[in-house]
Structure formats: C-alpha cells, structure tokens
Amino acid sequence: MTTHELTLSEQSATRFCAAARELLGDRGFTSDVDLIEPWLTDWRGRFSGKALGLASPANTEQVAAFVDLCRQHHVPIVPQGGNSGMSGGATPDKTGSSVLLSLRRMDRIRAFDTDARQIVCEAGVILQNLHDAAEREDLRFPLTLGGKGSATVGGLISTNAGGTQVLRHGTMRAQVLGIEAVLADGQIFDALTSLKKDNRGFDLKQLLIGSEGTLGIVTAATLRLLPAIGDRIVAWVGLSHIAKARSLLMQFEDALPQELEGFEVVPAHCLSSVLDHMPDARAPLSDAHPWNALIECVAPASGAQEVRDRVENQLTQAMETGLVDDAIIAANDTQAEHLWLLRDSIAPAERAIGPAMQHDISVPVAAMPEFIEAAIPSVEAQFPGTTGVAFGHLGDGNVHFHVLAPRGAKPGQWEDETGKSVSRFVHDLVVQWGGSISAEHGIGQMKRDELGRLGDPVAVSLMQTIKNALDPSGILNPGKLVPLAPDGPSA
Questions:
Q1: What order do you get walking across the sheet with 118-122 strand by strand?
Q2: pLDDT tens for residues 124-158?
Q3: CATH 3.30.70.2190, applies to 231-346
Q4: pTM of the complete model
C-alpha cells in the first residue's frame, strides 16, 4: 500500500482522533497543534512535517492497542524517542496523514539484576538516566554519545546507535540481550529473556535492531551492564598528520588492548570552531596542531595508577619518535569532561558557522587516513568555496565528514541547490573505497534514496521483502530506511 493510499479524508481523520483519545485518554493523545509542533522537526532542522496527532501511551499494552487502531483506520505511524536523530527518521511527512507515536512516557526501569549485570528498560528511558541508574549499583552501561541527555533507549536500539565506546564495546546491537516490540498488526513480540545460547531459528531481535521503526516499535529491552571503572585516563594529543593518528592508535591497541576505550580525531578547523562557539572553553595545548587525538583508557580502582603510568609511557615514546608533537593527560575527572566536551560540541559549533552537508560514513579502519587525505581536496575542488572536515571515531573507521558551504551561502537554499550534489559526490567516494554511507546515524528519510542508488540490489530487495512481509499495510514509519521498489513505494 502506498503512502498516497494511506491519506485520510477529513471525516476519517476526525473519527480516528476521537477513537485514539478514547483509547489513550487526554494525556495519551492530543491533536493540539501547539503541543505537537515541537516534535514535527528533526534536531538538525532539515526535515519538517505535519501530523494528525501525538500519541503518548503509558505502557506496552496501550502501544499494541493503538497500533491495532492505526491498522484498522489505515493511519501511518511515526515512532519517536528523544527526537535527536540525525537522518530524519522520526519526522513525519508533509501530508499530515500520519500520527506521531512518542515513547517518552514509557520511562520505567522494570528490572535490575546486579548479579547478572542486566537491566530491563522501557523504550523512553533517557540514556543519561540509564547511566545514572547503573552507576548507583556500581555498574555502567558501555555506550555513550553527545546526545545522552535526550536520546532514549528505544531510539538507540531502533537506529543501532554507536558513540565513542564502539572501539571496545561495539554498537547498541552488542548491548541488547533481549527485546520487546509491538508489530504492525498489534501483536507483542516478547523476547526480553536473556539466553547465552539460543538456536531456535532466526534471531528476530537483531532484525528489529536498526530497523528504525519500520518493522516494529521497540517498547522495552534487556541490556547488558559492565562493572564500573575505577578511573579513566583521558589524554589530548597534538599531531601533524592524520596518518600519525592511525599509527598512534595502533600503538595504543598493542600496548593497552583491554584498557583503550576511545580514540577520536579532531582537526584544527573543528577545534577552532568549538572555541569560537564556546567563549569560556580553552584549547588543551598551547600551540595549534593540524590534527588532535582524544584518547580514553579505563582502569579498575586497584590498578588506576599503573594504567596511567602506561599511558604516560606510550605518549613519551610517541613524542620521542616524532609521532606526537605535544600531549596532556587530564589530572582529574573535571578536566577529562572538559576534553570530551570539546569533542562533543563539534556538531553544534559547525552548525553555527552556516549551512553544511553532514555525512556519517565509514571505510575500512586501515584506509581511513588515506581516504580523508584524498576525499577532502577532491570535494573542495569539485565544489569551489566549500570546506571539508572529518572528525570522530578513527578507531572504528567511522568519521563525520562535513562539507561546509561557502561563506555567505543561504541556509536552506544552498542545501537544496548544491548540497544534494555534494552528498552524492561524497557517497560515491565512500562506495569506491569500500565503505558505508551510514555508519551509526541510520538511513531515515535523508539517505533512503541514496541507499537505493548505491546499495547492493540483492540486499535492498531483501529489505523490501521483509518490510512487506512484516508490515503489509505499510503503516510503520513509511518513507524511512527501506528504498522504494521499482513499481512504487514499498514502505
């Protein structure tokens, strides 16, 4: 069924809204334009839409009943967590025929097994609150990112979020031990029980992870936890070349394989942008360097000093061999947080400069320095006046490749007239290097057509087949993730 076929008449929309309000109550469903409006635009301000209403169920049973109601009335559903996604995956289209389904009310921690190091969270639990809950039990959840104050568990699962600890602990997919979700027909898929070994056919929870709400709506999950760390050793390093950052990463991986958790690269342009954006911030090093690396190692309480000594030793060796130009190690947690704040503030700082096309891409880890050195001048030559910058998770082959518009470019206009061509050019380069056009932010609506253009035809066809099988009415997050079939919309 196509998106056009799902468009409701005004009379049908009125009947649906009345039924939804009766089902969920005044707190659970609203058509108030002022209440809905803040949730109709994505975090980047790139995508805006309209909606019949905003549903906020209080529990899984209400989600299931509401999804079934939407199925009966042929109303498309756009699931939404913290609305902090980067690809427009939680934004409705402009037809106004869909309904927003917010999971933010479902923010309970249902169970906490400290012995098993597992926690059962509802989809609306905010990542920062999950961190705090684990910390109170001397445990930790091994995934973090800049939007931890708004990102929700359901959104993180639906997009298979990454973050700064993927180097050691993997993406969100690796943290999910069990899942609960509501399917397109209103059935509840309950697989919250965690089993080390389970060979009963397809791993259906893995199919739902990363599906961006197109196959089912995640309502809860069982997540793995780890012992709390005793201390963390955070260093900021100045380097002359991105290739040296890769060599330094390999040195740390050899010397501290169990302790190394984060290795981020920050070019001079990004650091300068952050310092301009945050007047109270200070540069970590006295001199500017073409490239910077932010390194984090962790240690148990009993071995913190020993790990700190090993980090200092590796940096000393690197300086003696000319690999590193300068470096500092945070003296305490406050200084460590300041260093990470510089890294986490790059996106808003770059956004304040003006229009830009942001690309969340990956290539094989060993090829990343060479890719950056080749891609930036190639893009700048193809689109005169633009500035290419690459920053992020060098350790797992994922950088955020931003192309800033020429000075004076008008927001909105430049993206529409030139930006799409920029992204096609960047994505073509990424594919030529054997990479992915989406490393951790998902496909959403922003990259759906590009996935159809560049994705493996067999893989794309399988996605379309699975989507049509699990959501034959096409009501779950239509227009997102799954490329259109040749004969028209399949999602």
A1: 109-113, 118-122, 217-224, 176-182, 188-191
A2: 999 999 999 999 999 999 999 888 999 999 999 99
A3: yes
A4: 0.90
